[in-house]
Design goal:
The chain has 410 residues and is α/β, with parallel strands linked by helices. The chain has 2 domains: 216 residues, 3-Layer(aba) Sandwich (Rossmann fold); 186 residues, 3-Layer(aba) Sandwich (Rossmann fold). The chain is 42% helix and 16% strand. The chain has 16 helices and 14 strands. It has an 8-stranded mixed beta sheet, sandwiched between helices. A 6-stranded parallel beta sheet has the order 11-10-9-12-13-14, sandwiched between helices. α1 packs across α16. The chain is elongated, with a radius of gyration of 22 Å.
Length: 410
């Protein structure tokens, strides 16, 4: 089976950026399928961008075939959408004869930005093959809440319209959001074509690596002093519930120590806030590579993960940050209100309401006073859940099943 996967921002291990398409395609190739990723040759998400193949020919990147569409550089999201959409769509259409000769059996479109949706529809219609819509973001909610676009902004209108059209025209609608059928129905499309895809952690988390000895030693030093250490690891940015963690720290028992390990634009403001409140029980560490997060979490007594409430959480959420923490085998405290929270499903920690510092303190106290063996058992349940249900191989296989079903029904 030949799968044409359109993802404007697709990255790779070498190029960096969003590797969702690459990770899936790599699994499909190992399963004997033939993928081709169509992506823009410029994305601000990547640490490096490829040179366009001469004459728009297919090129190999990290052992996978790519069709790089020439797209002009842009440094911010709006300019990327404005300057990138038309060249990307035009580039796909110009290469329809080349894609036709390659002979895809199915087209899959990622919805990270909806760029390329017209080209994807045109290919599917011309070749009379199914189009599968992989919903990774919900519009206009994402534009309004994450990027602060007003409801009457033209991009909000365009993305809402494009999403509705794809809901209507796609053979299958796929998403990690378990309740997306409600959103599909609300927009007047047929929810029976929706299928929930399993969540998955990125393969890079299990890559060979050197442990972050400095951070691990620092955490263990305080544990030996008798502190119960709760660690947050990852990007220090808004939306991760870190202000709630500081509020809880200001009221928590002296035996509980909070460590925030990571880098990001919000870190300086968070450190100022902790200093203003004279929080001596909050310590900041440098960030580590994604593959080292498990080492960091395993050194602590428990891990904190928070998610700012969003309107689209009624349909679901990307729980990869939660799964990454569960993968370590440490017990979790998760401040999030989302459907099918994996912490609750795996019973590997405590789920508390967002914006509730007292509930967070109560959960910490419950874990702190719990026998160490019982805490360890909680963590093992989380790791087992990820291994059995949230690997990239399970997710890729689920996508393949939907592709095969769509081809049979076409």
């Amino acid at each position: 089976m030949k799968i044409l996967l359109i993802d404007y921002d697709a990255g790779t291990q070498t190029l960096g950026g969003d590797t969702h398409a690459y990770d899936l395609a790599k699994q499909w190739k190992q399963a004997g399928e033939i993928p081709l990723i169509v992506a823009a040759d410029y994305s601000y998400l990547r640490k490096e961008n490829p040179a366009s193949a001469s004459g728009g020919q297919m090129a190999w990147q990290d052992d996978l075939p790519f069709l790089w569409i020439p797209s002009p550089p842009a440094q911010d999201r709006e300019k990327k959408i404005l300057h990138g959409a038309l060249p990307f769509e035009t580039g796909i259409r110009q290469r329809i004869p080349q894609i036709t000769q390659w002979g895809p059996d199915v087209v899959m479109l990622s919805s990270r930005h909806l760029l390329g949706y017209r080209g994807g529809l045109k290919i599917a219609e011309r070749l009379q093959i199914p189009l599968l819509f992989d919903v990774r973001r919900i519009y206009p909610e994402h534009l309004e809440e994450m990027l602060s676009y007003p409801p009457n902004h033209y991009l909000t209108f365009l993305f809402r319209r494009a999403q509705k059209k794809l809901y209507t025209k796609s053979s299958r609608i796929l998403s990690i959001y378990p309740a997306l059928a409600d959103h599909i129905q609300a927009l007047g499309a047929d929810p029976s074509r929706f299928a929930t895809m399993p969540q998955a952690i990125a393969p890079c988390l299990s890559a060979p690596h050197e442990p972050p000895e400095h951070q691990v030693d620092f955490i263990q030093r305080y544990r030996r002093k008798g502190y119960f250490v709760c660690v947050y690891g990852g990007e220090v940015e808004k939306g991760r519930g870190l202000t709630w963690l500081l509020e809880a720290a200001s009221q928590a028992p002296a035996e509980i120590l909070f460590m925030i390990a990571g880098n990001g634009v919000y870190k300086a403001a968070l450190k100022r806030k902790a200093k203003q409140q004279a929080l001596t029980n909050v310590l900041f560490l440098d960030g580590v590579a994604p593959a080292q997060w498990a080492d960091l979490y395993q050194a602590a007594d428990c891990v904190y993960v928070g998610m700012e409430p969003r309107r689209w959480h009624q349909y679901g959420a990307d729980a990869s940050c939660i799964l990454q923490a569960m993968y370590s085998g440490s017990p979790l405290i998760c401040a999030a209100r989302i459907p099918q929270n994996p912490v609750a499903l795996a019973k590997c920690g405590q789920v508390v309401p967002p914006k509730d510092p007292q509930a967070l303190i109560d959960a910490l106290e419950q874990l702190r006073t719990m026998p160490a063996g019982k805490r360890a058992a909680l963590g093992r349940r989380g790791a087992a859940y990820v291994e059995q249900s949230a690997g990239i191989s399970q997710q890729a296989a689920a996508y393949l099943r939907q592709c095969r079903q769509a081809i049979r029904k076409s």
